[in-house]
Amino acid sequence: MNIALLGSGFIARFYAETLHAQRRTDRIITVYSRTAANAKRLADDYDLAHHTDSMEAAINHEKVDVVLISLPNHLHEPAVRACAKAKKHVICTKPLGRTAAEAKRMLEMVEEAGIFGGYLEDLCYTPKFLKSMESIRQGSIGKVLWAKSRETHPGPHSDWFWDKEKSGGGAIIDLGCHCVEISRNFIGKHIKPLEVMCWADTQVHPIEAEDHAIGLVKYANGAIGQFEVSWAFRGGMDLRDEVMGTEGTIWVNSFLRTGFEMFTTGKGDGYVAEKAEVNKGWLFPVGDEAHELGYPHMFTDMFDAIEQNRDPLETFYDGYIVNAILDAAYKSAETKKWESVVLEAWRGDSADSYEKEFTSYDDDHYLIKEEMLPNGDKKLILKHKTTGEIVQKMKQ
Amino acid sequence: MNIALLGSGFIARFYAETLHAQRRTDRIITVYSRTAANAKRLADDYDLAHHTDSMEAAINHEKVDVVLISLPNHLHEPAVRACAKAKKHVICTKPLGRTAAEAKRMLEMVEEAGIFGGYLEDLCYTPKFLKSMESIRQGSIGKVLWAKSRETHPGPHSDWFWDKEKSGGGAIIDLGCHCVEISRNFIGKHIKPLEVMCWADTQVHPIEAEDHAIGLVKYANGAIGQFEVSWAFRGGMDLRDEVMGTEGTIWVNSFLRTGFEMFTTGKGDGYVAEKAEVNKGWLFPVGDEAHELGYPHMFTDMFDAIEQNRDPLETFYDGYIVNAILDAAYKSAETKKWESVVLEAWRGDSADSYEKEFTSYDDDHYLIKEEMLPNGDKKLILKHKTTGEIVQKMKQ
Amino acid sequence: MNIALLGSGFIARFYAETLHAQRRTDRIITVYSRTAANAKRLADDYDLAHHTDSMEAAINHEKVDVVLISLPNHLHEPAVRACAKAKKHVICTKPLGRTAAEAKRMLEMVEEAGIFGGYLEDLCYTPKFLKSMESIRQGSIGKVLWAKSRETHPGPHSDWFWDKEKSGGGAIIDLGCHCVEISRNFIGKHIKPLEVMCWADTQVHPIEAEDHAIGLVKYANGAIGQFEVSWAFRGGMDLRDEVMGTEGTIWVNSFLRTGFEMFTTGKGDGYVAEKAEVNKGWLFPVGDEAHELGYPHMFTDMFDAIEQNRDPLETFYDGYIVNAILDAAYKSAETKKWESVVLEAWRGDSADSYEKEFTSYDDDHYLIKEEMLPNGDKKLILKHKTTGEIVQKMKQ
Amino acid sequence: MNIALLGSGFIARFYAETLHAQRRTDRIITVYSRTAANAKRLADDYDLAHHTDSMEAAINHEKVDVVLISLPNHLHEPAVRACAKAKKHVICTKPLGRTAAEAKRMLEMVEEAGIFGGYLEDLCYTPKFLKSMESIRQGSIGKVLWAKSRETHPGPHSDWFWDKEKSGGGAIIDLGCHCVEISRNFIGKHIKPLEVMCWADTQVHPIEAEDHAIGLVKYANGAIGQFEVSWAFRGGMDLRDEVMGTEGTIWVNSFLRTGFEMFTTGKGDGYVAEKAEVNKGWLFPVGDEAHELGYPHMFTDMFDAIEQNRDPLETFYDGYIVNAILDAAYKSAETKKWESVVLEAWRGDSADSYEKEFTSYDDDHYLIKEEMLPNGDKKLILKHKTTGEIVQKMKQ
Fold it and tell me: Which residues form a coiled coil (chains A, B, C, D) (predicted)?
């Protein structure tokens, strides 16, 4: 695949690192930046033949197969529009839009143009995430009841993130987009997200947007998604997911505790990791940052999908659903009530509720709990199906 | 101290273990149970001189200095009433009441009787919790912004817990009482809890009460408390606290990951730990269960406080505040809105809001963020105090 | 118990903290230090009625039931001699002697005097250690094959430790005494330690004694003990044990990773923990230091044993065995060969070797390995009992 | 690169997975197995055009650029000889030889033939290892004093491993080759390994070779390497490295604790990970097994090196050094003494010893230790340069 890279900032460089590493076949062949000097610098650093300060020129470059959008949030829509016009496949960094309305327009553009629209939700491609999904599909943890995702750090790298107009919000839009899609995958993408309750506040920074938020997303099957996001966390970048199912639990720590620990008195100060705050004392680097964050597996899926003419794991449609959930979160933070997720284009299961199933112990009783006692006996707690009476029973 | 123990169930035995261990001076001298045989069995096991099936007899035993209530929730109030009548000091297991109204009556009883009322919130006495509080007091993590506490396990041991009438509810009243008081300590007991938002559901068990809930508690100073409680967790008993402050973070794992890991093929099956679900494969015992759960430090504080004629760290008043917060949680789970915490007897700071303070970079700018780049440069993100413009600046 | 405390240094204070905490019944009633001012200061701090600069005066104080030796290593023997003369029970800090010869004399003194001789090997009393021992006794990990104990930190607190004459050596005598006794407990105290191989070096410090050593101890039943000790470790105090058995594994982390993690930017600098090196960045405090290090359980066992007229878990005899193993380690570090453990007074099993038992698969074959394949099949690796041929076999 | 794969067993498949994943450019174009059916099966599974039961045919296939040896240990030498004859570049799985003599012949073959000889020491390519090496090069942990590597699991997958003649030994040759080269990298490849002390035993299995061993490798600069290897470990595959330097410490856990934890009651049994022993209870999968084990970075370095006409990080020469160290280990296990590493072809620093440097406190004193006390004072322990006297000093 020949790639046109739009943008030359922090994330664009992370993408370029990944794409040109590990003897991959795909190549960036041109880079666009509003600032010609930045385009040139990135082209030099990654040995690219072309660079330009014209977005159209980059997209329309004749060799380009797919356009990779790594621009600030408010520039996603115009970039997608230009790709649709040029009939070039497009893959876009997260979040897709600043709002569901914006995302929906982008979704319609790619579908109408018949081009590929891949949503670069990297954290749904981390190796641990992919393995977790496999375990869940195999039934290892039963039915998912709760799926939490947390991303917190001391705040983003670039000025535009802190400007609500350009970014579309604060920690919710920046980090919540990851968390919402992670939970949604765990719970099941076909299950309808019904409503959202969200707390958000600007606790520390002198900005308009929220720097800390916690949200709950209720799904049609009774499962609950949870996101915890903050730009006020001290200690590095905390990326964790937790899933509770009827038959098990999954805990994933993607960044700060991955089996790599270093203590240093501070000799030989070097770069530790994205958003690390200190370079002495106990440090927790990751082995291969891009890999831990899902980039290699994400690009593999995207380009394989284009070649195989199939959908990638994460599509523009998924990006739209995420934006719709985040819209409801922002609304709830204002109204202080649960707010419905407005989905004009829902493509999953239509059910808004599912029947509960209880485990029977015998014809007359439900099983509430079975427990092994220190002496080896089993204690049963049962509920009578009709009288509702709760009783204890011992089994040797 | 000579102690009358009311109750002979799981928690009563845990208390007895602790009190009669480690060459402590205090002694249980009588035990009461509704069922005489149970009282006798416990008395035999712990070598107690007396046992009885009359609560009054136990309380009024002439040698008794303090009464230890380890009864089901619906029996706390009558037991406290009996202690007040007998003018015997009383310490009561958690939660204090099933509702704030009940707790308030108990608070008034002890205060009117002039007796000591200690609230046995053991998880506010774990060694890790006490050390965390010390660090917070020293300012190690700055102002607390968020304090989460989580307790989840596969459900309680005794039948009465599962009966809403007797217990006062489900996972919220059973486990949330711990979590709410932990967060409240971290944030500051003098800070007023204002309102609560709570999701609760009965996801798995055939019961009326909730078996899973998540709640947020907003405090007057802008801090947010969070509780996560469940009777549907698989994998043991998960007890974790996390605190985020402006200058740092604290993560406490009190039970499932404490630096003790064991793999066994299953030979020699033995008791592992409270609420452990398996006895083969990888197991995570704790060294000294009572200690990790805070019992020794709790009783030490209670009896020292009685002797020194001072308040313990956790009083009936604290128990009342906890119940008031849980009442609001239950209401919010019904109304699906934030609900005010109704406090008829608030004794802390009266302020309902506090002014925010931002860090100035210079006379004209606030500092949003300072970041070390891989090349060693410092990047500043600043906001103009009057225009609101956000700019980036490099500092070498 | 009324206790005479000999010594007023770091460890003496740690002991005093423990003994006078948690409403324990036992009391220190006098303290001895060579320097009267130090004795007075400790007496003031712990509210002791008496203090003295005469060791004999302290020991012979009429109310004293038991003498607690917390003196530098070279003063243990004279102190024990004085106790034996006074017929006062004695408990002595680790290591018992600087050499086996010294330890043996102390052992003989207490046995001839008919007094109690308790060996204060605290790390064989940590809650995690006691629970591990229980699991091993229950057979959870089968026969112990290998037991490693590691203690490393940046070096001891007091000057006398660094002086080989007073301490008897370096990291081996200071830390190895713990590790050797931990491994010996795991493997079985009745199993004879046969020989030792040890590497030792002075890698960092300008001292005569070793600041780093690794040793292997071969036991009669084929099990291997291992110790890793250093005064050159950076990052705090690393206390870990690992045990491998035929049916399982135990990993214990007693200090640096116990489920308590804190990040701080450095505001509010306070004391973190014994031998912590930093007070900012990521810190790993322990909840209750004395408890994690085994002091409360150790004193409980010692005083219970005196009252019950039984041996404590760790006796002067154990201290002697440890010294004999360390003597062999020092010798091996010189000769660069395995050196026999010279035990003039071995009281355990006399066997120097045990027969091996292999698992049979059928009459003709031993089972080497059974393994589950990804497809669910079981693969067996077998060895013919007479021909010795090794074959693979599938079982569905 | 077009690759001929020799071998079709467990490791061959792991290699094939890696090479054909993540849109890599390099391709396996033919596979050889002694058993034609096995060659065919692998060719089918990975969609290879060719397969053969003639090693020469595979090597001499005209399109082949490089030969990848994934054969049992006793077949490495004949395979390398065939490559040398055919003048085809060769990369060979670990260990290079069964003995240093064998490895040296292979080294000479490739050097005389002028072909590329890459040593597939994957664990020196794990992302955590590469990042650790970078930190060490930057000086973050100062001079390395001790480097330990541990690999233990319940035993290998294939029958030939258990046959000493074919494999060259037991756990030492199979696992020790990894550990020795890991430590050697940490300490510095240019530093001469001088002598080895090793304990080895057959503790559990009915085999001739050792199933458990511990070894120490002394380097010319005073650093010590350590390996712990076993085929008798229960609990999965334990892969850990620990490095102690004068300024810091690195702890790497490559497999069993990487931030991914799962509890399952056992529903939906699936494959967990290489050498996992259980599929219920608490499990610790890795995200991307090949990546965690270093395969992608290893092949990238190998093929980049061929194209860039440079040495890879791990060469046949390194493989030879490793075998020489293991030879000394086997000898030491027999003689029970330290045994010299016999290196006929050492290419690093010739020094056999290095001078020690101590830190001066002032003209007259060395600094032994500086320590922060709880009250904030600094305590210094100093040694007089000429008298050798050790003193304590306080600094406020």
Answer: none
pLDDT of residue C379: 86
Q: Among partner residues D23, D132, D270, which is closest to A138 by beta-carbon distance?
A: D270
Q: Round to whole Å and give the CA distance between D243 and D252.
A: 9
**Structure-block tokens of residue B156:** 């309680």
CB-based contacts of B330, cutoff 8 Å, min separation 6: B169, B172, B198, B200
Q: What mean pLDDT value characterizes chain D?
A: 94
Give the distance from residue A278's alpha carbon to the nearest chain B alpha carbon, in angstroms.
Answer: 9
Per the listing, tokens 């985040």 go with A326
A2-121 topology per CATH: Rossmann fold (3.40.50)
CA–CA separation, D299 and D309 (whole Å) = 15
Q: CB–CB of A258/A283 below 8 Å?
A: no
State both tokens at A20.
Answer: 């040109």
Distance CA B150, CA A148 (A): 13
d(CA A148, CA A241): 6
Q: How far apart are CA D310 and CA D197, in angstroms?
A: 35
Q: Is B216 helix (H, G, I), strand (E, B) or coil?
A: strand
For residue B237, how many other CB atoms are within 10 A of its CB? Answer: 20
HSE-up (13 A, CA, CB side) for residue D103: 30
Domains of chain B, residue spans:
2-121, 124-293+310-340, 365-395
Q: Identify the CATH assignment for B124-293+310-340 out of 3.30.930.10, 3.40.50.720, 3.90.660.10, 3.30.360.10.
A: 3.30.360.10
**Percentage of chain B modeled with pLDDT above 90:** 83
Instruction: Give the 3-state DSSP-derived string for D41-77, with helices as H, strands as E and coil as C.
Output: HHHHHCCCCEEECCHHHHHHCCCCCEEEECCCHHHHH
**DSSP helix/strand/coil, C214:** strand
Contact C232 D201 (CB under 8 A): no
* Mean pLDDT calculated for residue range B80-91: 98
Residues 6 or more apart whose Cβ sits within 8 Å of residue C369: C380, C381, D154, D155, D162, D205
Predicted confidence at residue A273, as pLDDT, reads 61
In the three-class reduction of DSSP (H, G, I as helix; E, B as strand; rest coil), residue B193 is classed as strand
Q: Is the pLDDT of residue D302 over 80?
A: yes
pLDDT tens-place string over residues A15-35 = 999 999 999 999 999 999 999
The one-letter amino acid code at A25 reads T
In this structure, of A218-232, C212-226, D170-184, D356-370, the range with the lowest mean pLDDT score is D356-370
Beta strands in A41-162 (DSSP E): 50-52, 66-69, 89-93, 117-120, 144-152
- Among A101-110, B44-53, B274-283, B288-297, the least confident range: B274-283
**Strand, helix or coil at A38?**
helix
Mutate to test the interface with A, among D3, D17, D23, D138 (most CBs of A within 10 A): D23
- Provide ipTM, 2 decimals: 0.94
Question: Which residue in C has a C-alpha nearest to residue A280's C-alpha?
Answer: C281
Kind and range of the H or E run holding C283: strand C281-283
| C371–D contact, CB cutoff 8 A | yes
DSSP string, D183-206: HHHHH-TTSPEEEEEEEEE--SSS
Q: What pLDDT is stored for residue B275 in this prediction?
A: 65
Smallest Cα distance from B31 to chain A, Å = 23
Distance from CA of C34 to the nearest CA of B (A): 31
Average pLDDT over residues A68-93: 98
pLDDT of residue C285: 94
Res A202: pLDDT: 95
Which residue in chain D is spatially nearest to C390 when comparing CA positions? D159
* Residue in B with minimal Cα distance to A384: B206
| Distance between CA atoms of residues D133 and A300, nearest Å | 28
